[in-house]
Each structure stands twice: as C-alpha cells, then as structure tokens.
Amino acid sequence: MTAIDILALGEPLIEMVRLPKNDQPASIGQRLYRSGIGGDALNALVAAARQGARTGLISSVGDDLFGHDILEFCAAEGIDTHGVSVDPAHPTGLVYIDPDPADRRFFYSRKGSAASHLGPGNISEEMVAASRVLHVTGVTLAISETMRAAAFHAARVARAQGVLVSFDINFRPRLWSVEEALPTIEEFLPLVDIVLPSEDEAGALIGLASAGDILSHFGDHGARIVILKRGSEGAVMLAGDETITIPAVPVRAVDSSGAGDSFAGAFLAHFLESGDPRNAGHRAAQVAAQTVTGWGATEAIPRRADIGGDTG
C-alpha cells in the first residue's frame, strides 16, 4: 500500500456555479452555469495536494459522465482513488452554487447518490493505516446513516493505528437539523485530534459566540489542536496551551465556496511537513484567501509556489 499523508472520507460533487447577473442571457427562464468539481472533503484534498502532500480519497461515484469526470480530475491532481468505488446503480451527487463573497449559498441534488450508499464495509483499513491523517467532515456524517457509520469505523481504525484524525465541523442545515447533528458530532469529537469549527457553526450548534469559549468547548473533548475559522476575520487556534491568532489575507473575494475546506487541507499539509501549527495556520490562511478569488471551490486554490515562503 502506497503511503498517503492525508486520506479523506467524503462525497465528491459536480458543481454548477451560477454565473453573475451581467453574464446571464436576457431570456427569462434561461440561466448560465459553469461546471466544476468540488465537495468539502475533495476540496481539502486538492488544497493539500497543491501544497505538495500525498493525498487519497475514500468515496463512491456513479457510473456516469459526472463520476468519470471526478475520477479524471482526481488523477490530474495526483489524488489516489484506489478507495473510490464506481456504483452502477446510483448517481453522482451535484451541488448548485449561487456565488457570494462571504456567504454559503448551496443547493444540493445528492439524495440517493452513490456516496450516500457507502458503508463501513467500503473502508479500506489498510489504506487508513497507511495514511498519516484521516480527514472527515460534518457533511460526511450528515449525508446518510451508512456513510456516518463508515466515518466512525474509519476514525476508530485510525485511532487504533496511531493515525491522526482531522474533523472539519462543516455543519449544513440543509442536510440535517441541529437536534440530529449536535449529538452525532459530540459523539465523534473524542476520536478527533484536530478539529476545525467556524464561528457561525458554533453559534448554531452550541450557542457560543466567544472565541475562547468555542476553543475551550472543542478542546475539552480531547482535540490536540482546535482552529476556529472566522472568515474574513482570519482564524484563532488553540494548540496545546497556546492560543494563536491567524490574521486573514486581504483579497478581492468573488465566491467563498471552498475557503474553509482549502484552509483545512493546506493546514494539514504544512503541519505534517513542519510540525509547526503556527506556520501551518499562516500558510493555510494564504491558501484560503486565494481560493475565494475565483468561481467554485477548487479552481482558484493556489499551488505551493504561488503563496510565497514561510510566515509567522
């Protein structure tokens, strides 16, 4: 089994990004969309791969044009897809994005998708054991009971094998309610070494607004590193007993899609390389900033050469 730095479990999606009003046709009822590849777990892998990490994906896609587009995209990005099955019975999921510089405006068409039928039996324990980090997201836990069971199984295998577990909260109210999400997330957190909540998610899920309270809440579950993502305000990190402020990098934003995911992937890539959470956080902020300068989640994610030298 080839060694992998970052292995992610989640659903890759075809993105349909609605173009700005000025680019739309005059005819009522007609809309122009630009297609792309996304999905939160895959977005993180793209960011990590473009920073030089060895990456792999565990998932499933439909045996359709969209699914094969995703596999082709992963191959081009150097993402290992030995853990991705092709399902002839269920379709590849889609997400429609109405771009916004700061807000999340997603509309999913993924019910019954191939990835939603993934279960614990689809997890390659050998692949998990051969990785350095297993990355899971709240969307992975939300899309189906079988995928949720797969995530718990993979995380337990990772813990048993000494593999770090990274968890991006990524709470999506369109996928599940607070009443369903909160106990599931709280049950998952003790398996996690690195956790990445955002301010709006913390407010919605646990009613906390103070950065210190949020960091403490997630740190109390046992995570070694907690990174509170604050959008245009940057991030605040709790690493052991040290609180680290990560300022945002000013850019002209057009679409916030994938910014938090690219932060997570870039952070993991640089943290594994250097062992320095402060530097990894600053590098991740640079990657996330560049991500929002283009349409869709992955197109504008920069490569390592495009973000300059070490900072912080």
UniProtKB/TrEMBL annotation:
GO terms for molecular function: kinase activity. Keywords: Kinase, Transferase. Residues 6-302 form the Carbohydrate kinase PfkB domain. Gene3D superfamilies: 3.40.1190.20. Pfam families: PfkB. InterPro entries: Carboh/pur_kinase_PfkB_CS, PfkB_Carbo_kinase, PfkB_dom, Ribo/fructo_kinase, Ribokinase-like. PROSITE patterns: PFKB_KINASES_2 (PS00584). Belongs to the carbohydrate kinase PfkB family. This is Sugar kinase. It comes from Sulfitobacter sediminis.
